[in-house]
Amino acid sequence: MVTAEKGAAEWLAVAKDVADKLAVDAAERDRANETPYAEVRLLKEAGLVTLLGPPEHGGGGQSWDTAYRVIREVARGDGSIGQLLGYHYLWAWAARLVATEAQIAAVEELYTSENYLFGGAVNPRDGDLAIVEDGDEIVYNGRKSFSTGSKVSDLTVLEGVLDGTEDHIFAIVPSAQEGIVFHDDWDNIGQRLTESGSVSITGVRVPWASAAGYVDKEFRPLTYNTLNVPAIQLVFANFYLGIAQGALETAAAYTRGHTRAWPYGGDNKESAAEEWYVLDAYGDLQAKLWAAEALVDKAGAAISRVLHAPREELTPQARGEIAVLIAAAKQRVIDTGLEIGTRVFEVTGARASASKVGLDRFWRNLRTHSLHDPVAYKRREVGAYTLLGELPEPTWYT
């Protein structure tokens, strides 16, 4: 277990070691499509699950700026596991986003001391879970078509609407209970090990005292509460970036070790790594990737500052400007990553398309998750800000 005294650079070294281990058999595990118990155990044993947790309970006490880079590094080795870790960080921070000070302390002590992994059943495109009040408890019922983390999670974040009101209530509950049934129906072409299938919630009871942010059954909103969406959108951008980095690194290793030079071009070379069009392509893709990384890092530094600042200080203007920057970073990473995922085959050759090489998984992973919400709307947000000075209004996706 890594100690809490480690700094950001040392945590990134830990993440790199984890990524290198994941990369060894990533293609085989992708094809097997089995529940990633061993992979989650690796994250826990490395101390990465409690990276943001309080040091007094054994956590790393690190910033979001570091957490984003850790997500990216892990995704370089395996995009699915990078997503699981990124979603965990967001849901572990959910208490800070909306809960009371006492609730925050209790949740952070619990997950940090127990080394618990979070999942979440909060897909906004489905109908909200229904909540009814029963004395000192509230009871959740319903179904969600996506629940990333499912069987590998220890805790699940629920969200629903209280019957007869428009009040949304978040709560954190144990994942292993009779009232939560994960349906094991995630069978998409990419991000196959994220345990993102559907879930049924039946009669899950939560004390009113654990309703996040509620005091005497009333919620007092802050602009800070709305940071959940920009924060997770940048989680997306970082594991997309890690996937793209993994694709380029894997392709380069294949080109160096296996790709044969083309003997019919009139400017024949001894190796593919000497061919001008191969060097041109890698130079173009690397430059684009570095540019995307710089924008993602800029966004990470900006949101990290406000995530760790007093909650009452965040203004709608500052929140909106950060959301626009993250929208720009996300669209740039998607475009660059998909281009890399396609063009790497041009510089590795026909034999690189073999299933055993697994080079296709990078494009499949990025293509699958980047459909989470239409990137065209991210471009529109940036355009409206640039042309009209408009800030995106907080919604479930902005």
TrEMBL record:
Key words, A-Z: Flavoprotein, Oxidoreductase
Biological process, per Gene Ontology: L-leucine catabolic process
InterPro entries: Acyl-CoA_DH_C, Acyl-CoA_Oxase/DH_mid-dom_sf, AcylCo_DH-like_C, AcylCoA_DH/ox_N, AcylCoA_DH/ox_N_sf, AcylCoA_DH/oxidase_NM_dom_sf
Superkingdom to which the source organism belongs: Bacteria
Matching Pfam families: Acyl-CoA_dh_2, Acyl-CoA_dh_N
Flavoprotein recorded as keyword: yes
Family annotation (PANTHER family): ACYL-COA DEHYDROGENASE (PTHR43884), ISOVALERYL-COA DEHYDROGENASE, MITOCHONDRIAL-RELATED (PTHR43884:SF12)
Name recorded for this polypeptide: Acyl-CoA dehydrogenase
Originating organism: Amycolatopsis saalfeldensis
